[in-house]
Amino acid sequence: MYSSSSGFQLKMNMMAGRPSRMKSCRTYTGLVIPPCGKFASPTSLTSESGDVPPPWMPETDGSSQPSLNREIAYYVEYMKATKVEMALRIDLINRFTALIKKITGSTTSVRPVGSCVTGLFFPTSDIDMVMAFSPRPLSLLQNDISRSGFSSNIHAVLNASVPLLRITDAVTGLEIDLTMSDGHGERATRAVRGWLEDQASDDERRVIQSLVMVLKLFLSIRRLGTTFTGGINSYVLVWMVVAWAKLEMPKLHAQATNTLPSRVPARSSRLDDLTAEFNSISISSHISSLSQPQKKSSASTTTSGSPSQSASTTRTNLGSALLSFLRFYGQEFDYETKSIRFTSSSVEYTSKAWSSSASYLLSITDPADSSVDMGSKAYGIKHVQETFRDAYVTLAGLVDGTATRDQRGKARVQGILGFWLGGEYSQLDRERKEIVRKWRSQHS
Question: For the CA atoms of 387, 390, 392, 398, what is the dihedral angle to 10 degrees?
Answer without folding.
Answer: -130
